[in-house]
Amino acid sequence: MKQISVYLAGFMIVAVITAFTDDKLVYQPGLVAHYFEDPVNWGGNWPDNVSEPTVDPVKWTFTTYRLSRIEPAINHLFIRRGWFSVRWEGWIDVTPASDDKEVRCNVTGLVNLNPANSANNEFSLTLKDGTTITRDNLKPRFPDIKGIATSIILRPKGNSNDNLLMIDGVPYLLRNSETYKIIGDSEIFLYNDARNPAGIARGHWWLNINASNVLFFCSGEQVQLTTTKNNIDTYIFEMLADDGCRLYIDGKELINDWRACWEKLPRALRRSPPVTLERGYHKIVVEYFQGQSLVEGDSDPAKLYWSSISAGIPRQIVKSSHFTHTDAELVPPNKR
């Protein structure tokens, strides 16, 4: 292992980079960011009083190469004003870090509840607004409930096929000897299937569950039935950008929306299709342009998110520990 000091004229950072080596330099932390200066106001085609221009951004971006530097992540908050383009190049390690990993799964199905008040028929439902429903609430006049639950704890009534959940698409039979817990936002419908004309509950109580990306426990142990074959996981990437952005992994275009866009608009968050990646290093290129930025020090965002159920990664900004570069990415675009 050796260290390299990188000095970049014209910017305020001096980076000391620890390089990971075997016998020679291979991967170094951070991405290489190549900055281009674009014409202010795009040659008059993007006046200050216009939020989005009508001209094609392709003709006004990546116009004049200025400098390159190493940055820890996809973020341009070092820049104070607009009218520039940047291309981040390097490698993304899609091996989940230990602090990324959570065992999450999709849970759907119907559970028959026993309203009897005993420790062997445990039931607790916490709704999004903080309301908690227990087996003691399941009285004849208690109404049906639809909504979002953040926590479900239960023991089912009996061991019949009525109590069948699907965990990541695989059948999972519940038993009344076990306590089950679901943590995370779940769509629920709590209802009674035999009310009289006056609305009095006389039959079974049921809980219909539809949840994605939740934690599922059986008697305190996490459950996940999804198996990752050959260390291959499916990812979804999202890019929040003011203005345009593109994302390529291993040369494949995943996001391409090269339009001016205010960060507060819904379309500022661009989403990739699902992509399957083998664990390890993959070539990544992210392109971004910032046009109009009226306020000095304006922090228009450029952020890259990812999520993967099979890899156990909840939706989050891709951490700097997953980004590296090699000597090849250090070569400026105008020298290639």
Question: What do you see in this structure?
Answer:
The protein has helices at 41-44, 327-330, and strands at 2-7, 14-21, 25-29, 31-37, 64-71, 84-93, 105-113, 123-127, 132-134, 145-154, 164-167, 170-173, 180-192, 205-218, 221-222, 232-241, 245-249, 252-257, 269-271, 275-278, 281-290, 302-308, 313-317, 323-325. It has 336 residues and is mostly beta strands. The protein folds into two domains: 2-99 and 229-335, Jelly Rolls, CATH 2.60.120; 105-222, no CATH class. Strands 1, 2, 3, 4, 5, 6, 17, 18, 21 and 24 form a ten-stranded antiparallel sheet that branches. Strands 7, 8, 9, 10, 11, 12, 13, 14 and 15 form a nine-stranded antiparallel sheet that branches. Strands 16, 19, 20, 22 and 23 form a five-stranded antiparallel sheet that branches. Strand 14 (205-218) and strand 15 form a beta hairpin. The longest helix is centred in the first third of the chain and has 4 residues, at 41-44. The two termini are 28 Å apart.
Topology:
Layout: E1 2-7, E2 14-21, E3 25-29, E4 31-37, H1 41-44, E5 64-71, E6 84-93, E7 105-113, E8 123-127, E9 132-134, E10 145-154, E11 164-167, E12 170-173, E13 180-192, E14 205-218, E15 221-222, E16 232-241, E17 245-249, E18 252-257, E19 269-271, E20 275-278, E21 281-290, E22 302-308, E23 313-317, E24 323-325, H2 327-330
Antiparallel strand pairs: 1-2, 2-3, 3-24, 4-5, 4-6, 6-21, 6-24, 7-11, 7-14, 8-9, 8-10, 10-13, 11-12, 13-14, 14-15, 16-19, 16-20, 16-22, 17-18, 17-21, 22-23
